[in-house]
What does this fold into?
Amino acid sequence: MVVAVLDRTPAIGDDATAWRFLRSALTPATPTAPDGHFDEWFARRCGANAFEVDRVPLTALPGWHFDDGTGDLRHESGRFFTVAGLLARTDPGWRAEWRQPIILQPEIGTLGILAKEFDGVLHFLMQAKMEPGNATIVQLSPTVQATRSNYTGVHRGAAIKYLEFFAPGRHRVLVDSLQSEQGSWFLHKRNRNIVVETSDDVAVDDDFCWLTLGQILGLLRRENVVNMDSRTVVSCIPLPPEAPAGEGFAASLRRSMSREAEPLHPDGQVLSWLTGMRAQHELIQQRIPLDAVLGGEWFRDDERIARRDGRFFSVIGVDVRASNREVRSWGQPLLAPARPGLVGLLVKRHRGVAHVLVQARVEAGAAVVAELGPSVHCQPDNYRDAEPGTRPAFLDWLLAVPAGRLHYDAVQSEEGGRFYHAVNRYVVAEADEAVPDEAPDGYLWVTLRQLTMLMPHGNYLNVELRSALVCVHSLWCAGSDDDES
Amino acid sequence: MVVAVLDRTPAIGDDATAWRFLRSALTPATPTAPDGHFDEWFARRCGANAFEVDRVPLTALPGWHFDDGTGDLRHESGRFFTVAGLLARTDPGWRAEWRQPIILQPEIGTLGILAKEFDGVLHFLMQAKMEPGNATIVQLSPTVQATRSNYTGVHRGAAIKYLEFFAPGRHRVLVDSLQSEQGSWFLHKRNRNIVVETSDDVAVDDDFCWLTLGQILGLLRRENVVNMDSRTVVSCIPLPPEAPAGEGFAASLRRSMSREAEPLHPDGQVLSWLTGMRAQHELIQQRIPLDAVLGGEWFRDDERIARRDGRFFSVIGVDVRASNREVRSWGQPLLAPARPGLVGLLVKRHRGVAHVLVQARVEAGAAVVAELGPSVHCQPDNYRDAEPGTRPAFLDWLLAVPAGRLHYDAVQSEEGGRFYHAVNRYVVAEADEAVPDEAPDGYLWVTLRQLTMLMPHGNYLNVELRSALVCVHSLWCAGSDDDES
It folds into this structure.
């Protein structure tokens, strides 16, 4: 029996665990992993291995082929992922109907971080890992990033390091939920986000390093260091409720986690609002052959699958050689966004409590019609010539926001194992009077506690909102209230 | 803006609302709605309208046709639902791969109950409604059972009565979540389960009747009166935490709702266990043409789609004439289960607190691989000749359980708008020593509070478990501890 051997002590979501997370978040560096140690280690790891990523035609990817009947791009093993077609239909008023390529990866992978206490402070075992699509090839990843194909040995590579710590019942589970990934690019994709704590001795391999939560959040201030998989797992880590005094922005963020602070909308209303949005919008998804996507707006040649107007994304091929991956060389398709994205989270204080503006966002591959997304999420260049009324809400406000209202502004990469140079500029900005207290239809002001409450259940916060949330956590924990009052 | 006009008073899930529900649950009848009044009204409604349901060939259903390219059974409007094919693949150890017909209904319908306080007691507006597939044609349904097709007027029928009360922001929302339906028969089906309270005057139509929760739960002791749609909405109604003393079964059920009662597994472990089950099992779902299902185990003739061995279910056609439905006559396909089902919930007291045994159940059409299902759910006749080791766990125990351990035993119907004479025998039984305290792999003992905690989020409790749960609530509220100690 799986659960009976687990520690009976509550862990997930309880206050004691949340306070241990906070202590780790407020400890930027420790003797175990001083910041200097990290910089040195990370630079060494980036230089230690040879990586080469070259673009090659889709027709030149070993093991990959376009399926005879459908044109779907598949691996000969039937595993990893498939690029197929999707026909999406939504209710009038949005976009009526469109076809697009979509990544199918029905397996649930594991994004796992191993935790261990040193000198009373939780540390997290992070990995310097290359992914072919990363803009900066090596980024900081969770301890384990394993697809089902990985752990069932489909690609015949070396065993995944530390995977055994995530076997059921062996260690104390601190975080464990299924979370969605990019709904515009994946159909119904989910990964298991898990943090387990061990008291065993752990042999630390060259590519791994123990860091506090404070260090990880600190590294989020840098660009393209903490990868998407790390961000989504870290976003699931609950920070504790507290209600500090103070006029500053960080204090208002902290109060936003408090159970005492009154949210603009009670919890039940937040759930009811999202349920209503999901019921009100129609999203009909039909898998179609990739060939049935081509011919109109989309085309395929040997090199790639792309749109004639150059918008949205293309599917390209890469040839990869790495000296430290489970498999030393391989070819694979990657989805390449046409342009960098912008992910913006608007924050506004209501009665001294920070509220963030979320939207009920319908995406082609969403599992439950709509999930909560950040206030703004788009490729701004797509709207360069758009009529004012057709531009995403708050985009213009955000692009013109004064520097003093920008609390976070950094470029971060999305998953480099599936996407090629997919980067978003993440911005956290404090709203002014131009942003109404009453959110427009499809948008809602919520507190950080309310978002945290939804996190254990999955399919509530989309991956961009979870990423934006860890950016907020980095401000929350930095506690720097000197910037404004 | 949708939410701003909602009442700011917390409603969903708060204790005050839960206590109001309890008061209604403990009020079996009131002057507003005496039990005699119900019986008389219901008998009158059953007799008031003429209903005729005749089986007809699938090829004789007006508006329905087998699609030329795929063989899928569709309505000419493209709405209502479609019977298509599904190829399901699961991990080794379960069933490897199979094809089956499946109902596609990607729209999210509304199952809504209107509530109103009379003399301090919440009453719920229930409807005497015919559905063609019901074993007893008229059953008690929610105030509103509306598909999107209904409220967008696709079938050109009369307007849905009381639908306007469920428009956003107009009334106080007490319950509001998306819940899944039969995962073996539907692909990714969900309906909105909503209860709203009004203080407006409500004109009560002939087919409608105000009942307390106690009356509805009392009617659950009868067979085939409270329809599945009512049961799923009522299952979402939280009953309050309390911790009464007492040695009886009902007291142990009530303590199972208490926050003080220690569950066998902390909440976080329950979530982690289910996340693990979902990640561990593979479920790959591929829609295929219905024609691609036929030829092997399944066949189609003019009359129906069925299996050669007569197992599981068939798809049949019915011609319907009704004098009080939105449309007065129509034909439609229905899914007809081969045999009656058995849904059993095992209950065991641990330290005086009732725990129910749930399983992580993988079904072909599940949206998130596995949901929590009742301890036992099968068509027992399918296993008549099965080897002992291949029969569902606890089936033999349940079939042989002494009458003294049977706290609930009644036949209830599943959704009569999609299924033809689909009935399950629902049983709640107190386990003896033969049922181990340590649940086998894939099963878990949980408290009623833990199930209630998951209810607002959807896709946790499958529809059979939700139905079984209202059967438990009927015992919980009856409070009859005289049957045993």
Summary: Residues 1-9, 481-485 of chain B have pLDDT under 50 and may be disordered. Chain B touches chain A through 56 residues (CB under 8 Å).
